[in-house]
């Protein structure tokens, strides 16, 4: 059961993921969580680094699609300036939102990765949908009220993951070893 929470890769921040490596791996789309992964949960403006990374993805013909548990209007408002496609009310950790995006954008699970800052929602949903996952560190240390219980549970899961998988470590970028 603990394997369901194991990320494929662990990268400190989403915009450290190399679009050229993604292209080499046959990735056509990056699915991303919204809050504390793409943007801070309490600030909808993307950083200059994020905007540059989105531009680089476009140069490599890789689409960025947000998959969020938030309500439609919240996601739409948050992404207005970034002009990104999204799936709202994804019901992560269920694979529903990821599978919906695969179907809507005519993608195969091997053509995407899912990036998120939570084991309990993003990584677990990825594994449930048979999609490779990238765990990132939260952009800011504070969380929305509804995320705080997940972080407490995650601390227990981390202990079990580290016991079972001694090679879990943060990398500078993804690679094709997984």
Radius of gyration: 15 Å
Order of strands, main sheet, comes to 1-6-5-2-3-4
Number of domains: 1
Assembly state of the chains shown: single chain
Task: Please state the second-level CATH architecture.
Answer: 3-Layer(aba) Sandwich
Task: Give the number of helices.
Answer: 6
What is the helix/strand order? EHEHEHEHEHEH
Portion in beta strands: 5-15%
- The count of DSSP E runs of length 2 or more, i.e. the number of strands, is 6
Going by CATH, the homologous superfamily would be: HAD superfamily/HAD-like
Q: What's the CATH topology label? A: Rossmann fold
Kindly report how far apart the N and C termini lie. Answer: 19 Å
**Shape category:** globular
Quickly give the structural class. alpha/beta
Report the biggest beta sheet as strand number plus sense, adding barrel if it closes: 6 strands, parallel
CATH class: Alpha Beta
Mean pLDDT: 89
Poorly predicted spans:
none
Quick structural gist:
This is YqeG family HAD IIIA-type phosphatase. With 178 residues, the chain is α/β, with parallel strands linked by helices.
What can you tell me about this protein's structure?
This protein is α/β, with parallel strands linked by helices and 178 residues long. It has one domain: Rossmann fold (3-Layer(aba) Sandwich). 35% of the residues lie in helices and 13% in strands. Strands 1-6-5-2-3-4 form a 6-stranded parallel β-sheet, with helices on both faces. The longest helix has 17 residues, at 148-164.
Top keywords for this entry?
178 residues, alpha/beta, Rossmann fold, six-stranded parallel sheet, 35% helix, 13% strand, globular, hydrolase, PGPP1/Gep4, HAD-like_sf
């Amino acid at each position: 059961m603990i394997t369901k929470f194991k990320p494929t890769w662990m990268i400190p921040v989403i915009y450290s993921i190399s679009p050229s490596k993604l292209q080499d791996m046959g990735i056509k789309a990056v699915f991303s969580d919204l809050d504390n992964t793409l943007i801070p949960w309490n600030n909808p403006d993307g950083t200059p680094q994020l905007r540059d990374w989105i531009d680089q993805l476009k140069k490599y013909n890789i689409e960025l699609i947000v998959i969020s548990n938030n309500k439609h209007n919240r996601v739409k408002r948050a992404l207005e300036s970034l002009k990104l496609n999204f799936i709202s009310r994804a019901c992560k950790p269920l694979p529903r939102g990821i599978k919906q995006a695969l179907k809507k954008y005519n993608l195969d699970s091997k053509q995407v990765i899912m990036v998120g800052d939570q084991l309990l929602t993003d990584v677990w949903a990825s594994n449930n949908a048979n999609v490779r996952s990238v765990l990132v560190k939260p952009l800011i240390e504070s969380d929305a009220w509804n995320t705080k219980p997940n972080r407490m549970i995650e601390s227990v899961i981390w202990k079990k993951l580290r016991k079972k998988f001694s090679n879990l470590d943060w990398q500078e970028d993804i690679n094709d070893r997984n």
